[in-house]
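Annex B. Sample input.
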Amino acid sequence: MTLPTAVVAALGLLFSHMGRAFLAIDDVVSFDVHDVIVFWDGQPRNIKADPTGSTPTGGMSLLDGHDVSIQVRNGGRVLIQDAA
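Annex B, continued. Sample output.
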């Protein structure tokens, strides 16, 4: 998951470790990784979050076992449902 840097700071998230990403332009970048607890399907889940940009994103591991429907257009709807 990624979160805006300001949100990570405001929540006082605990630093976990340094992460590395390999970019398509053949660069390697390092970044902080923080421990986060999110409530997903009514249950707490321990995940890692990277502070970056201004728009939060969720990782694929959170979506495991769910159906996702996305209207690919500006302002489109995103629907996530338990696949069970």
